[in-house]
Amino acid sequence: MTMWMAVVKSGPKGTIKTKPNQDSSKCTPRPNRKGLSLWFAGEENIMFLGSVQTRVDEKGRLKLPADVKRELEEGQKFFITSEDGRWAQLYPIKEWERKMSWVMKMKPSHPARLKFENATRLYGLETEMDGQGRVLLPQRLRTKARLMNEDVTIVGKLLKPKEPGYPGILEVINDADYVAEVEAAPITNEDRMAMSEFED
After folding, report:
1. In a domain, 71, yes or no
2. Contact by Cβ (8 Å): 153, 51
3. Which helix (H) or strand (E) holds 135?
4. Does residue 21 sit within a domain?
5. Alpha-carbon span 115 to 96, nearest angstrom
6. Average pLDDT over residues 173-181
7. Which residues lie below 8 Å from residue 120, measured CB to CB, with a gap of 6+?
8. Prediction pTM value
9. Is 10 part of any domain?
10. Residue 65: CATH number of its domain
11. Count of structural domains, the chain
């Protein structure tokens, strides 16, 4: 799986990258590589997909996968935060602004809004991607989530039904914690039945 690309079709020979409304049958497959990708769920409708393992350097910087870096401009802004200190959540600044737009619709005194604002301020930091594709993780967060001197996993997450230009966010978690969480709560037949109700 390619770390970052628009995917509309995949197969044994690789993935196919197309532009909106382009006939995928006329495209050349691109070899699959393990990692993070983007895929089209409709015209101009992309999201992060998959996961990749990496490490945070001694200065607290997370290096984004090379294919991700190639699709972003140097100086790309992120708001990095967490709601609980377990995961680092990397919001492209446009995604963060969208999230805050609906948070601001809640009354300032609403308990949920207060909790959200307090947590995301506590762990939050606005940062820019440097020329080598690195972003600085907030010190408090990387300590709380045990992201320093440990293997970490970067995963893609979709926040809500897609809109053009909103790919979702990246989440970073201690790799051992992530594996333990997945193994502790495996997908069951009941889960599969529940999901099948939404199939076309």
Report:
1. yes
2. yes
3. strand 134-136
4. no
5. 17
6. 95
7. 81, 82, 83
8. 0.73
9. no
10. 3.40.1550.20
11. 1
